[in-house]
Amino acid sequence: MIARIWHGVTRAAQADEYLDYLRATGLADYRATPGNRDVRVLRRIEGERAHFVLLTLWDSVEAIARFAGPDIEVARYYPEDERFLLEREPRVDHL
């Protein structure tokens, strides 16, 4: 099994709205991708910022590629992410 880890930062005031947005976009897509075993969202508020960590578990590199595309190290973003995210990390980690 492979863990894929992504980190994003939004305004603390938008944390709940962003979580709802994640549920409708990325989390739904993760869960719908064959080979995805689990999706976990961790959220930590620090002052005016909310940190989100998405931990997904996958059967294989091929399963990750079905979600992320051929370069699995590149973070996948959605059009509305710009409305929420203060930082856009270009890459994800795999363990």
What is the helical fraction, as a range of percent? 25-40%
Order of helices and strands: EHHEEHHEE
Beta-strand proportion: 35-45%
Rg measurement, Å: 13 Å
What's the end-to-end separation, in Å?
A: 9 Å
- The outline comes out as elongated
Largest sheet: 5 strands, antiparallel
Overall pLDDT confidence: 96
Low-confidence stretches: none
What multimeric state do the chains show? single chain
Helix/strand/pairing class, anyone?
alpha+beta
Number of helices, where a helix is a run of at least 4 consecutive DSSP H or I residues: 4
For the secondary structure, the number of strands is 5
Q: How would you portray this structure in words?
A:
It is a single chain. The chain is elongated and about 40 Å long. By secondary structure, it is α+β, with helices and mostly antiparallel strands. Strands 1, 2, 3, 4 and 5 form a five-stranded antiparallel sheet that branches. The chain is built from four helices and five strands, in the order E-H-H-E-E-H-H-E-E. The mean pLDDT is 96. Strand 2 (36-46) and strand 3 form a beta hairpin. The protein has helices at 15-24, 26-32, 61-68, 81-84, and strands spanning 2-11, 36-46, 49-58, 85-87, 93-94.
